[in-house]
Each structure stands twice: as C-alpha cells, then as structure tokens.
Amino acid sequence: MSHLTSDQIDELLRANGSDATVYLIGAGGCGMSGLGHLLLDLGHRVAGSDVACNEEVQQLRARGAEIHLGHHAEQLTASSPVLVVYSSAIPLDNPELQAAQQSQIPIVRRAALLAALVHRQRGICVAGMHGKTTTTSLLAFALQNLSANPSHAVGALVPQLKRHARFALNSSEVNSDAKPFFVVEADESDGTLRQFHPECAIVLNVDQEHLDFYANVEAVCAEFHQFAQQTRGPLIFCADDVRLAELLARQPGAVSYGFNPLATYRLESKVQSPKSKVQVSDDLLTRDARHSTFDVWKSGEHLGEFTISLLGEKNISNAGAVIALLHHLGYAASDIAAAIAPFTGAARRQQELFCDQRFQVFDDYGHHPAEIEATLKAFKGLGARRLLVAFQPHRFTRTQHLLKQFSTCFQEADRLWVTEVYAASETQIAGINGALLVGAIREQGQAVEFMPSLEDLRRALRAAMMPGDLVLFLGAGDITKAAHELANELKQETVTPKEQLFSELAALLSGAAQVKCNEPLAKRTTLRVGGRADLYVEPASETDLARALQFCTEHQLPFTMLGRGSNLLVRDGGIRGVVICLAHPHFSRLEIIGERLHCGAGVRLKTLAVEARRNGLAGLEFLEGIPGSLGGSMRMNAGAMGSWLFDVIETIRFMDYTGEVHERGASEVNVEYRGCPLFKNHIALSAVLKGQPASKEVIAERTNGFNQKRWESQPAAASAGCIFKNPQAIPAGRLIDELGLKGTRVGGAVVSDVHGNFIVNDGKATARDVLNLIEIIKQRASSARGIDLETEVEILGEG
Which is deepest, 396, 554, 603, 622, by most CB within 10 Å? Predict the structure, then answer.
C-alpha cells in the first residue's frame, strides 16, 4: 500500500485537477461516503463500490457519483482513478485493492485523505472513545448557526446538517485566518489519529476500547498523547476523565472542562426534564419535550444557563466541550447558547423512531459498557413505566475483552434482551458469542433473554411491550434494522377505543403495576371457568389503586374487585370495564408484632394461618383451608369450622372509591352471615388480626384436625367452594345429597360425589355448564322440599 503523507495526497489531487477521479472502496460507509461528498464539493469525480445500496450510496449517486454494487477489479480499472481510498473494514484481499496495486495506482486509507482535506482549512478535530459523533455534529451545527460557514465531516447522518460531510468553498489560499473551520470526527480505532495536525482539538475521553488494534490501554493513551502534541492551538479536554487529565493537563494550550470543580469550564447540571403530556383536540398525546439544562462557569465566572435537546450528563459534558471551545475562540456565551439549543442529534444517537400515547421507540449506537450505562441512566430519567432494552454486541474482541463490564452495565433496564454478536470485519473467536454475554449478565443476578435472530428479537419485544413503555435498541451493528421495523409496525397498527383506554391507564400507573387488555379470567378463578376482562389491573401501591379508581370515575367505567378467585363464578361473556386485583406483593405483606398479625389484603389465608402457627399464635387455624385472600374473605366474612374471619380481626384499613384511605376498628363494622356490607362500596387494604399465645404442638394438632375433616369432606378438583348458603332447615350439602343429585352433570360441570354443595370442573366445563347445573339443583330443591336455595358463590359478568 502507498504511504503518502497528507501533503503528498493534497499535491496529487491538485496536480490532477478537478477532472481527476477518486475511487472509494466501501463507499457506503459513513466515513467513506463523507469523503465522497467532500471530493464532489471540490469538483472531483467520484467512483466506488459497496455491497449494499444504502442511504449514503443513494445520496452520492444523486450528486453524480458512480457507485457500483459489489467489488470487482474491472470496475476500478474502468474508472481510471488517480487515487484509491479504503477503510480499515476492507480486507486486504479485496479484488479492487489488488487491481489498484497491480496497476500501481496510489492507495491510501480513509483517514489519510480526510487529513489532507482538513489541512487545507482551519482543522478542528474531535477525538475520544465515546461521544465523538454527537460532539462533532453539535460543533458543526453551532458554527453554522454562528454564521461561520464551516466545513465538516461527521461519522453519521445528521438531519439538521443535510449532509454529514461538506467542504466550504470560500476558503482563502493566502490568509489562513479567513479560511473556514473544518470540524472533523477523528477516529482512533485503527491508529490513524496521528494523521491529523489540527489547529484546535477536543478530546472527550480515553477508555479500554479497540483492544483488537491496541496492545493495551497504555498504547491507547500514547496515541492520544501524540495527537495532542500535533495540535497547534487550543486543546479542550475533559477534566472528569482521570486518565485524560493526567495525560493532557500539562500540555501547552490545554483547556479543561467538566463537572470537576477544578475544570476551567465547570459544568453544573440541573434537573432533567421528562416528556410532557399536552392536550391536542380530544386526544392525549405525548409530545417530545426532552431536554437537559445546565450552568457553565469559567474560572469562577458564571457564563450562563444552557439547554440541549439531548439527555444525560454525558451529553451535557459533550455540549460543555463545544461551549468551552467556542467561548475560547471568542464567541459570546449568549450566542453559543442560542446556537446549540435547537440541535436534535445525529442518527442513531438517542434517535426517536416512534412515539404515541402508548410507546416510545429509540435507536442508539451505544456499544461500549460506559456508553450503555450512561445512556440507560439518561433514558431512565424520562419516567417511562418500564425501560425495555435490546442490545447487539459489536465485535467478538470487544465482547471478549470487556465481558465483565458488559455484565453489569444494563442494571437500569427493566427488561433486557441480547442478540448475537455483530462481527463487523472480524473473524469469530471460539466461545465468544451472545449466549456467553447472556450467561455473564445472569451471573450478576439480572434477568435477560437471548434472541439469536433480529426477527425473533423484534417479535419478543413487541409481545412484551405494554403502554407507557420506552423501548431502546442499542448497538453499532445492524440491530437498527429491527428498531426501524418495530417502529414501522407500530405506525401501521390501529388503536381501538379499548386499547386507547388500556394505553392511558397503563401510562397512568407505575412501572411495577400490571395492566392487561382482554385478560382471560378463567385462569384467575379456582373454578377455572369464565370469559375475559376488558381491562385487568394489578396495582403496585395504594397510589396506583387510587389512580385506577379515579381513572374509572373519569371515564365512567365500571370496575370489579377480584381477590384470589375463590367463591367466584365469572360468566362466559366476561366482565366489562376494569377488573382490579390486589395480587401485587405490596398488598401481600405480613408482619407479626407480638400477638398481632399486620396483613395486606392480598395475603393468602393459608399463608396467614401458617405464619401464625410458626409464631405460636392460636385462633387462626380455621383459615388454613379457606382458599382466597384476606381482602376477598373480609368482603365475604369467610368462615369455617364454626369460626368467622371478623372474630379475629381488630382493625381494618380500606379505601373508598374516590381513593381516600380510612381506618376503623372491627367492632365498628357491621358484619353478617357470609358478608360485610361495608365492602360493597369500599376496598379492603389491610387488617390487624389478633392471635392467642399457645404452643406450636397444640396449634399443629388443631390444624391437622381441621385439615383431616376438610380432606374427608371436600373435593380436590377445581371448584368455587360451597355453591349455596345453608338454609335454616338443613345444610345445603345434605339437602343435595338427599335429593340424589350427587354426580349430576351438565357438560364439564359435575355435582361432587364428596360434598353435595360443591360443583367441580372436570377440565372442560364452561360457566354456562355451571349455571345450568345450579338451576337444576335450585328447581329440584324448590319442587321437592319447598326450599329456595340462595347462591353463596358470587356470580359476575355477562352471559
């Protein structure tokens, strides 16, 4: 390969004139396509090749470049180029490279040509392991707003710059001060940072990165140190990076910025603004109002308050670098603030692909643990219900060298998926893959799912998404395809009125709450029959519960409280409106203080009885065999073995339908057989139950006696418990037995042979089967004995 200096490359281009053709191998890459735009701006002819026709290729073709698909030697020779350019992603056995060598056409790396063009103007290089693209594009955007007419070359598409690379043509060959600035993203990944000798530079950070090229982090630091020595003017560096501060603090012309109190340009972050909801017509829409606000102090003097439309302290830091350089170059702080405020970012840097009242979907290039951790922290601050993260590891060497850091950088994610490693130009390393990373993350105690293909990844995410979720795709590879496909899928979806309510309710509650649409209720009842709930909610707190009740009131939606589903028959048509269940662990807390049990409404009665026995508290043994939760049992004043729940309750807490919480002594509450009228229009939250000290042996003996009686008299098959209340004349079970109805069947519903007051589900029953069987029993009892049986089981829903 040729080893031309930047001056020799510049001389070659000038000598051959504007008609000279430059051939770009891999022209569709952001860096290479940027070179194409710069050459076209200078009047040169551009030809080249790539394996795919992406947006970058289309932009070059639209400007007259001849870009071929596929790499073939005859394409290059037919173009008769004076110079051939390639990137580090191109293998040395590329047929076009070999053809150029055979034809003795000068061949240079991408960075060498870029450096030659930068040196024609007042070069400003932005370097560092993380944040280069954002900082470079922000600096170019700001200089453009400041009427400086800069040239620029950014390593990603930047919508607000129209093209990600541009060469300003009003340069002066005589007066260097009249030349435009040339802002360039200088890449350190392949050792080409030394190609640049800029007038100014920004160095953001150094890190354990690109260890496939560098022997160690010391070699990385040496590259940056050499680059700093080649910078002729101000060198802006981040004082928050310890390695960087040690490396550059004593460098002539060095100026520091950062959150560090000793930084020349000190940053002070303010509260980050989350998204805001605004009323537009009759629809509640989410508007993008994300931004970060911060103060900048220069040597103790307050320069002013600055705002950017990017999230997180890392982006505040990146903006701080731009502010420090521009202020050092003589621009007024107020002008700088106005210049940077409208910037919305580069492609795949916190890029929003979709947003409606249900979901937000973002695409981000982050692929290093430090970038990922900072990005997740920034997005977590937006206040979404849940942060769903999909990550594609980039390069086998990076995954291998930084496996430990990768295993802990996703802690902010509420749910996490990892797909297979994107190889880039690397050969696979045995044993290094996505599954290895998934195992390392799980070893740290974090749940993660492995989805080898991007298609499976997209489907898994869509299936898991709930309204109020923020979905973030991370990685430098082709995971962006899955992100865009999901966004396009969401754009095509039609939101029904029920789904609209579902979305608004889910977004209203905390991320820990469960909200589901068209939820099957059969699996939530002990009888295992019934239709679906329009909306199903498991609040995660009393605040969530109050918000759900208020939502129902505002939207005039009926709601139904569901316990653990015992003593309940849901009709096959399901339940309209909202079904609320206090099954979240928040409502299932149980604490024993002395002789008293402080229990949430979601505590199972069996759990309550077991814990009482463990702590030597008697009087609650009868509860162990009663299915269901404390809240539902309070509503029904559940009882067994001659005892009733309110016999052992001292105080209760409950919520009215406006969301206000009350507390009352049990003696103040009216209770009756199989019911507590208070809970017809109030919701049980918790109660304090009182036990009597006793030996564990005595309690166990009594419990075993109760259990033995139950096992002998109650069926094990799925049921709702006793179907009928006991009439005064005779227990319902004995009545049904005497009527000869045991074993009577309707469909999959059967009168139990063990206890006549139980209807069991043989696995195939419908609610209609059970209801028809209930009617048969009631009619026989009325006609044969003159007894009107009254159902004890609660029947809800539509037929």
Answer: 603
